[in-house]
Each structure stands twice: as C-alpha cells, then as structure tokens.
Specification:
The structure is a single chain. This protein is α/β, with parallel strands linked by helices. It has a single domain, classed as Rossmann fold (3-Layer(aba) Sandwich), CATH 3.40.50. The chain has 12 helices and 7 strands. A 7-stranded mixed beta sheet has the order 3-2-1-4-5-7-6. The longest helix is centred in the last third of the chain and has 16 residues. It binds S-adenosylmethionine. S-adenosylmethionine binds next to helix 2. The site of S-adenosylmethionine has 20 residues, from helix 2.
C-alpha cells in the first residue's frame, strides 16, 4: 500500500491535454488591474503554477498541495517569487488576503464545496478573483467501469470492504450550484460553464493510462502493490466491453470552469 498514490510521471504523460483546460481557465482572469499575489490550490507538479505566475508577472505565488511526490517535483522549479508548501485544500484559508486563487483539477478531491469555496473567497482581497476547474465526467465508462471493478473481489475486501467512492460523483455539484454559491459569497457576476473537451486518444488503452494518473489513484492508495496490475487489467477489460477496443478513441471529457471576482 502506498501513502502517496500520486505519480508525477504518470500524471504528466498527458500534459498537453491536461494543460488545455488550465489555460482556458486562465483566460477567464480579468487582467485589467494588477494581480500581485496568487495561490494555486492543489498545484501538483507546479509547472502550470509557474507558467501562470510568469504570465501574470505576480510578485509572489504559492503552490499548495498535499502530495509529497508532486511537491518534490514542484520545489525543483526554482522560479523567483514562487514557492510551494504542503497543505490541505479542504481546510485552507489564506493567512493574508490574495489577489488570485486558482484551483485546477483539485477541488473535486474534497467534499463540502459550499464551505471550501467560502473559505477561498473569504481569502481574497477586495477585487480579488477565484478561478476553478473541476472534472464532471463521473458518468463516463472510463469512471463507472473502475467503480464497478472496485466492487468485485479480491479488490473490495483488499480495500476494507468499502471501496472509496468516485470523488467527482460524490463531491462535484451542478454548474448552476456553483454560480449560486459564488453569488451568495458576494461575486455579483459569476461565470460558470460546462465544457466538453474532445480528447483524441491513440486507442482505448490510452484511456487506462489517463485514468491511472488520476481517478485510479484512489484505489491504488488502498490496494496492496500486488493487486495494482490485476485491478488495471480487469478495468481495461471492463472498459473495452463498454466502449470497444478502438484506435483512435475519441474520449469526451466534461469539465466545469468557473470564475468570479469580488467588487
Ligand atoms: C489532478 S492534479 C492537478 C494538479 C494541477 N493543478 C494541474 O492542473 O496540473 C490534483 C492535485 O490535487 C492534489 N490534491 C488532492 N487533494 C488535495 C488536498 N486535500 N489538499 C491538497 N492537495 C490535494 C493532488 O495531490 C494533486 O497534485
């Protein structure tokens, strides 16, 4: 069993596809006034944090993550004004108010979004901005198939009899809920949209590689090492049965992008 299931190399195999929603999100930032400070919550390996901090020319940027493996990679970046720290985004709030809070593909890992987003918006300076992207693809076979395999033996027992739920299914709200949450927190003109990303994969097998870097990590965290490969094999078979063994495979991926600015 591994305590830190995030593997930076596996995660970065699809860096191009993963970066696209990040930059769509970044395009929602209002740059009409200077942005001096930013925090990236669930920053992962930190490359995108560093690139955005450089694009905005902020004075100070902090990346926060709970994975030692991801943070170790981030800390090697060494960019002026950029630092990384360990933290839990579920309870995070800023010691000093910040101009921009970013959370790309991280919020869905924690529950209670009304409370969490409330903590984040209250951490913003006057005129501060929040940009958040969460996956909304829990109903796709790439996710439902792994949940189905996790319910079978020997995996179920190996995970203590209760496989962890899909965090996207459990935690992610409807787009309109996020618009209401932001409005209730004082964001008068929230922008929230559901976007379908067309991810052309070389084959169906590449979807397995994709999920190995993200949604399967919750199972890898609980399963003993010797059950990782059998789990992946059974998941691949289940996925092929559901969508076919195709090359290329057109993998649709829904995401919610949101931004809001305080007056
Ligand atoms: C899918 S990666 C996204 C990384 C980065 N934001 C990007 O766009 O490439 C999700 C990141 O969220 C982090 N994460 C998940 N739950 C967290 C928590 N409760 N507190 C802090 N970081 C968390 C993981 O360690 C991982 O690095």
């Amino acid at each position: 069993m591994t305590s830190d299931a995030w593997n930076p190399d596996t995660y970065e195999r699809f860096a191009g596809l993963r970066a696209r929603p990040f930059w769509d999100l970044a395009d929602l930032i209002d740059t009409s006034t200077p942005i001096r400070s930013m925090v990236d919550l669930g920053c992962g390996t930190g490359e995108l944090t560093a690139a955005l901090a450089a694009r905005l020319a902020v004075d100070g940027a902090v990346g926060v993550d709970s994975s030692p493996a991801m943070l170790a990679k981030a800390e090697a970046i060494g960019q002026r004004g950029l630092r990384f720290e360990a933290g839990d985004i579920a309870t995070w709030s800023a010691p000093q108010s910040v101009d921009l809070i970013v959370a790309n593909a991280s919020l869905h890992w924690v529950p209670h979004h009304v409370t969490v987003i409330g903590n984040w918006v209250r951490s913003l300076a006057s005129g501060g901005q929040l940009i958040v992207q969460v996956p909304a693809n829990a109903d796709h076979p790439s996710h439902t198939c792994s949940a189905a395999v996790a319910e079978r033996e020997p995996f179920r027992s190996a995970m203590g009899g209760t496989p962890p739920p899909d965090p996207v299914a459990a935690n992610v709200l409807r787009p309109e809920d996020y618009a209401e949450i932001l409005f209730d927190l004082g964001v008068t003109d929230p922008h929230v949209r559901l976007q379908v990303y067309p991810q052309l994969m070389e084959s169906t097998s590449h979807v397995v590689e994709w999920t190995s870097g993200t949604s399967l990590t919750r199972f890898f965290k609980l399963l003993p090492d010797e059950l990782h490969a059998p789990f992946v094999d059974e998941y691949r078979a289940e996925l092929f049965a559901a969508v076919g063994d195709r090359a290329p495979y057109f993998y649709t991926f829904k995401r919610i992008l949101m931004s809001g600015r305080l007056p």
